[in-house]
């Protein structure tokens, strides 16, 4: 099965690296990247074939992965349509499946993916939705491919704006929390390096607890929060200053913007 990635940016490279690490032969992978320097670098680093010409890269492809910026999607679709690739996977944020199906030959299976930047370290949480011609087998295959760089959740496309709000943009929320914790630590007298180490390792450890134990976030928080203790005092201030309403508002704004970018 030959896979062509259209676009050679960070997300495409992360998927490329994950596929190769999972045992896929480099000879079955092609990257289409307009920058000849970037194309050459990817070819040398991973042993894949790289080209600057879409038609060349799509020749013989069983799967085309659209990994370009949303405003470039319309420019690459004609080449995919001309190649007649049977399965098209898109990781372009906000672009609905209908945009692809309007240009691609009838019957082309389109599967839309909303990954996040943790794909770069093999820990992405991706939402996956199939188009009108995508079979359960198509969706399962895409899930298997994305499973090389993280976890996958299959949802209807109507839920992808919500997926974007939670997992697609979610890493930025936690980076912002980390920034705030670091600044607070500095204000309490720690050096910035000390505060950064404490904050980032604490967030990483808390994330591991949520993933690797059977306890819910509520149960885990309760386990740290002794009645009348230090954590209870801190949580009271976070709640009083509107932590939950802020996240409700932020995720809703994100979902609405995602829909807007998709022309909905």
Characterization of the model:
The chain has an 8-stranded mixed β-sheet with strand order 3-2-1-4-5-6-7-8, sandwiched between helices. The chain has helices spanning 10-21, 36-46, 54-58, 73-83, 97-101, 136-146, 160-168, 170-187, 192-212, 217-224, 230-240, 243-261; strands at 3-6, 29-32, 49-51, 63-66, 87-90, 109-114, 124-130, 150-154. The protein is elongated and about 65 Å long. It contains 12 helices and 8 strands. With 264 residues, the chain is of the alpha/beta class. The longest helix has 21 residues, at 192-212. It folds into 2 domains: 3-155, NAD(P)-binding Rossmann-like Domain (Rossmann fold), CATH 3.40.50.720; 170-261, ProC C-terminal domain-like (ProC C-terminal domain-like fold, Orthogonal Bundle), CATH 1.10.3730.
Q: Can you give keywords for this protein?
A:
single chain; 14% strand; 53% helix; 12 helices; alpha/beta; Rossmann fold
Question: What is the topology?
Answer:
Layout: E1 3-6, H1 10-21, E2 29-32, H2 36-46, E3 49-51, H3 54-58, E4 63-66, H4 73-83, E5 87-90, H5 97-101, E6 109-114, E7 124-130, H6 136-146, E8 150-154, H7 160-168, H8 170-187, H9 192-212, H10 217-224, H11 230-240, H12 243-261
Parallel strand pairs: 1-2, 1-4, 2-3, 4-5, 5-6, 7-8
Antiparallel strand pairs: 6-7
Helix pairs in contact: 7-12, 8-9
The whole-angstrom Rg is: 21 Å
Task: Indicate how many domains the architecture comprises.
Answer: 2
Shape: elongated
Structural class by helix and strand composition: alpha/beta
Tally of strands: 8
Q: How many DSSP H or I helices?
A: 12
Beta-strand residue fraction: 5-15%
- Helical fraction equals 40-55%
Order of helices and strands: EHEHEHEHEHEEHEHHHHHH
CATH class of the largest domain, please? Answer: Alpha Beta
Using the coordinates shown, work out and report the CATH topology of the largest domain. Answer: Rossmann fold
Low-confidence stretches: none
CATH architecture of the largest domain: 3-Layer(aba) Sandwich
If you average the pLDDT, what whole number results? 95
The strand order across the widest sheet is: 3-2-1-4-5-6-7-8
Distance between the termini: 35 Å
Subcellular location: Cytoplasm
Domain Pyrroline-5-carboxylate reductase catalytic N-terminal: 3-94
Family: Belongs to the pyrroline-5-carboxylate reductase family.
Catalytic activity: L-proline + NAD(+) = (S)-1-pyrroline-5-carboxylate + NADH + 2 H(+); L-proline + NADP(+) = (S)-1-pyrroline-5-carboxylate + NADPH + 2 H(+)
């Amino acid at each position: 099965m030959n896979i062509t990635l259209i676009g050679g940016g960070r997300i495409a490279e992360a998927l490329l690296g994950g596929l190769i690490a999972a045992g896929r032969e480099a000879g079955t992978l092609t990257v289409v990247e307009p920058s000849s320097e970037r194309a050459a670098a990817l070819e040398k680093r991973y042993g894949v074939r790289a080209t600057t010409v879409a038609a060349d890269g799509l020749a013989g492809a069983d799967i085309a992965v659209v990994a370009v910026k949303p405003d470039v999607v319309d420019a690459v679709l004609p080449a995919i349509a001309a190649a007649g690739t049977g399965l098209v996977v898109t990781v372009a944020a906000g672009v609905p499946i209908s945009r692809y199906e309007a240009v691609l030959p009838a019957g082309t299976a389109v599967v839309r993916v909303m990954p996040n930047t943790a794909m770069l370290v093999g820990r992405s949480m991706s939402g996956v939705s199939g188009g009108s011609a995508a079979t359960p087998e198509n969706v399962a295959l895409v899930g298997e491919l994305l499973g090389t760089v993280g976890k996958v959740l299959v949802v209807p496309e109507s839920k992808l704006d919500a997926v974007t709000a939670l997992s697609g943009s979610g890493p930025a929320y936690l980076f912002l929390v980390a920034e705030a914790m670091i600044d607070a630590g500095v204000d309490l007298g720690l050096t910035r390096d000390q505060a950064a180490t404490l904050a980032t390792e604490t967030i990483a450890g808390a994330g591991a607890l949520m993933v690797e134990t059977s306890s819910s976030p509520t149960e885990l928080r309760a386990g740290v929060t002794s009645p009348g203790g230090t954590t209870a005092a801190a949580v009271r201030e976070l709640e009083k200053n509107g932590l939950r309403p802020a996240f409700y508002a932020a995720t809703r704004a994100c979902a609405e913007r995602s829909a807007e970018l998709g022309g909905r």
